[in-house]
Amino acid sequence: MAMVLGAEVADSAMIQPMKKQIAIVEDEPALRENYAAALARHGYAIKTYGNRRTAMQAFSTRLPDLAIIDISLEDEAEGGFDLCRDLRALSAELPIIFLTARDSELDAVSGLRLGADDFLTKDVSLPHLAARVAALFRRIDALRRPDNAAEIVRRGALAIDGEKMQTTWNGAPVTLSLTEFWIVHALAKNPGHVKNRQQLMDAANVVLDDNTITSHIKRVRRKFQQVDAAFDAIQTVYGMGYRWVE
Amino acid sequence: VSIRLQLLIVALTTLVLPWAGCQYARELETALRSSQEQSLLASAGTIANALSAQPQRVFHDAGDTEGFSAGAGDLYVYPLVTQPLLDGYREDWDVPAEPTPLPTTTGYRARLQAGSTERFLYLFIQVDDTHFDAEPHNVRPDADRFDRVNLALDGPNGREAYFFGTDAPGLIAAQSVVKGEDGVDSVVAEPRIQAFWLQTAAGYHLEARIPLSFVGRHLWIEALDGRGKGKAGFAADSAAGGRLFFATAGLDALLESFIGDGTRATVIDANALKLGTAGTVVSKKHGEAEGSEPIWYRYFLDVDTSDMPTLSSAPDHLSGESVRSALEGHPHAQWVLGGSNREMLLMAAAPIVIEGQLHGAVVLQQASDQLLALRDRALSRLFNLTLIATAAAVIIMFAFATWISLRIGRLRDAADSAVGSDGRIQLSMPESASADEIGALSRGFERLLARLNEHAQYLRTLGGKLSHELRTPLTIVRSSLDNLESEGLRDDQRRYITRAREGTQRLQSILSALGAAARVEESIKQSERVNFDLRELLISAVAAYGDGFPGTHFVLQTPQDPCFARGAPDLMVQLLDKLIENAVDFCPKDGTVTVRLERVQTSYCLQVANDGPLIPEALMGRLFESLFEQRRGGDDKPHFGLGLYIVRLIAEFHGGTAVAANREDGSGVVFTITLPLI
Question: What share of chain B is helix, strand, coil (3-state, %, to 5)?
Fold first, then answer.
């Protein structure tokens, strides 16, 4: 136990001097600077880029530890998506967060399909953003550590690794975005308890409207159903919210 | 005035067709009549000329042209067609005229008529004498008194006197007084002059037959009462005696050769007495033809006959303006009314002038000729046809007008309902495929609606666009505030930060409301339809609302059995959320919100009713519009009316409708959602 703890400390000590580098690709300078300032305050090294070209130039020489990308970049309406695709080509593990003013279902689906770890609208507050960034780094760290069984929540066929933020169903991995992961986590932690939308939003560190929660739930169900067509563990309780049934 | 009525009135103007036909017909008839007049007059002139060339065949005696005077005893001798029977009756004479009274000074009334065949002169004397005085035997004509008729004739041997008398009525012979060689008068019978004495209730009739060889130019006749009570006529010894005016023998046959069918020719002498006549006016056939046609429209067609003179039909002479004029030497033609049906006859008279002296006239009579009859029939047909055509035109125009009105009506209805109460625009209009002006109008409407729709679409997406565009600057403000807060602030500064944050929050909720419609529309598009139990959903949801809105009572009324519907339950919950939110907003504290579900025929009726203020009438139809903000609830939350717009969208997604109404008792409002059964 102590050894494990020591390893953790040693790990963080090892990383501490080397600040995590976050790339923010955002064409709106004020916003870019605000995000940069906020994240810098949390101890990250921030590189900001105004468009895809400059960002890609920089990434080709050195990859950041995490990228926060806007979808529309200057004159490229979907420049963020292209950037995401290119980045994924460079690194399969690099955490990518879409942070955009576009909140359509389609954009979210496209973004996540391109391998983004999370899709956030700009409604998200800076502390929430920081929380996500931290969560994603934590996951990276957790992935680099040996399995910690204590952190794994098991609910029947479901297994959730809270540290690595990984989900499996009957042993098969289910790829969830960060928001989705937190929603599933919140539901599965207390099976049978109804979580209303607000509780789910709080759990996911995000401010969303009802429809977005609904579509998140839908997406989650679909992802599980890709693994197991008979999946129906997430139940809708009309007027209240959702609950996990085993 | 509707188009239909207008076109009907226009169609009625085709009635001018039959009217014009009538006018034309009348003019035609006038022309035809005048031409008939001319031709008949020409015929009359021709006949007159032909006759004047052979006066001996025309005039019995060309000498005496003194005026005819019945008072002076002048007598027209009717030509008799058949040999009458001597029987005391004149019915077989076939003369339509009554006998002429003989002049009398004593009140003794006797009447006389004469007729002739080729060989005989017939006399018919009718005497009113109720007392029969028989002739005695061995009569002494001068001394004896008995009912007698004296007759004198200026025969070839001078004046011969006869008398009729009898002791027994019946067939008798004339008697004459013969001076014997001994100087004694004796009465001898003249068997060649036969008569029939018929006693009647009023007196007696004497029908006498005299061979024409006995007859000269004059005739004296006198009836005497046997008791000397009176006498009438002209004594045989008086100078004045009646002249006999004979029709000319053989003239009828001569005339017959001149005339054609349907014409009657009459030759009159200078006294207008008929000398001969031939032919008939074929009025019978004509009359039939007229009678077979409907009478009502002849009223329009017929020539005005009211001012035409009536033809006088004396059997012995002719009269009338034409006759008068011809006897003054001027040919004349005139239309008169004659016959029992008072049909129109054309009468043309031409004088017969021999050696500069007027002797008589030829008068031709003709019914409206065959042409006119044909014209009548043709015009009747024309009239009928134009009437039928007019009727057809009116009907067709009416039908056409009805069709046009229907099309315009359809277009109008479509235009009325093109922009629905829900703000949706129906883009296709009826009639737009038609090539005519209505089609063009319809296409014009379509273009207008398309433009309107674009505009409406723009307005509908404006919210979403605005919300999207405003989101970035808002995020800048908010992230700046976040950063500012992290810098560490004094308490007084923090106060302002808090206010600014509240402001941005409000802004954010407004923006999110603005974009909500678009998001809902999008999520509706992506919704999958499943079968779900509406009742179970309501029970579950309303239970949750009870916890969510503690200040309000919820009442749920549902059928006992499951109510399956097809659609997206998530959306249905959202619909319910919005309705309940709205209801709670307006519901007073401790008021009741009633949710009721029932099956109505082929649909579910879902009602959410709440106590509270009523919806103003003016807003009623607009409540479900996008971004419609009017009603304000108790709190300060902005009401963009999006909630109800979303309700409508979801109801429509499920194939239903959303309607708002005030409760009849004014205690609150009811929102009704109709959903189809599955």
Answer: 40, 25, 35
CA distance B382 to A155: 103
When CB atoms are compared, the residue of A101, A211, A240 closest to B520 is A211
Q: How many angstroms from the chain centroid is the CA of residue B370?
A: 28
pLDDT at A58: 92
A103 touches chain B (CB under 8 A): yes
- Averaged pLDDT of chain B: 81
Query: Best mutation site among A32, A34, A99, A198 for testing chain B: the one with the most B CBs within 10 Å?
Result: A34
User: CA of A45 to nearest chain B CA: how many angstroms apart?
Assistant: 16
- The minimal CB distance from B483 to the residues A37, A215, A237 is found for A37
CB contact under 8 A, A238 and B537: yes
Dihedral in degrees, nearest 10, Cα atoms B309, B310, B314, B318: 30
Coil, helix or strand at residue B438:
helix
Least Cα separation, residue A27 to chain B (angstroms): 11
Model pLDDT, residue A47: 92
Q: Is the ipTM of this complex over 0.90?
A: no
Identify whether the C-beta of residue A59 lies closer than 8 Å to the C-beta of residue A90. yes
Chain A CB contacts of B541 below 8 Å: 238-240
Contacts of residue A123 in chain B, CB cutoff 8 Å?
Answer: 471, 475, 508, 512
Contact B404, B5 (CB under 8 A): no
- Region of residue B380 (phi > 0: left; psi between -120 and 50: alpha; otherwise: beta): alpha
Asked if residue B297 has pLDDT above 80, the reply is no
DSSP 3-state of B101:
strand
Give residue-wise pLDDT tens across range B245-280: 888 878 888 888 888 777 888 888 888 888 888 888
The verdict on a CB contact (< 8 Å) between B482 and A123 is no
Q: Using an 8 Å Cβ cutoff, are A160 and A152 in contact?
A: yes
Q: Is A222 on the interface with B (CB under 8 A)?
A: no
Q: How far is CA A85 from the centre of its chain?
A: 17
| pLDDT for the residue A68 | 93
The 10 Å Cβ neighbour count of residue B551 is 10
Residue of B460, B565, B573, B567 whose CA lies nearest to B519: B460
pLDDT (average), residues B507-524: 76
Contacts of B526 in chain A (CB under 8 A): 105, 215
d(CA A157, CA A154): 7
Q: Give the length of chain B.
A: 678
For residue B433, the tally of other CB atoms under 10 A from its CB is 8
Q: Is it the case that residue B507 has pLDDT exceeding 60?
A: yes
Cα of B529 to nearest chain A Cα, Å = 13
Rounded CA separation B287/B305 (Å): 16
**pLDDT for B652-664, tens place per residue?**
888 888 888 888 8
Q: Dump pLDDT digits (tens) for B418-462.
A: 877 666 777 788 877 888 888 888 888 889 889 988 888 887 777
Contact A211 B574 (CB under 8 A): yes
Nearest to A126 among B472, B483, B548 (CB): B483
Nearest CA in chain B to A100: B472
Q: Regarding predicted confidence, which is higher, B496 or A123?
A: B496
> Which letter does DSSP use for residue B118 in this model?
S
Distances (CA, A) of B102 to B125, B133, B218, B237, B375: 9, 20, 15, 16, 51
The one-letter amino acid code at B46 reads: T
* Antiparallel, parallel or unpaired: β B668-676 and B657-662: antiparallel
CA nearest neighbour of B116 among B236, B212, B38, B252: B212
Q: How far apart are CA B309 and CA A14, in angstroms?
A: 147
Q: Residue B609 and residue B665: Cα distance in Å, rounded? A: 13
Using a CB–CB cutoff of 8 Å, tell me whether B285 touches chain A.
Answer: no
Calpha distance B339→B285 (Å, rounded): 13
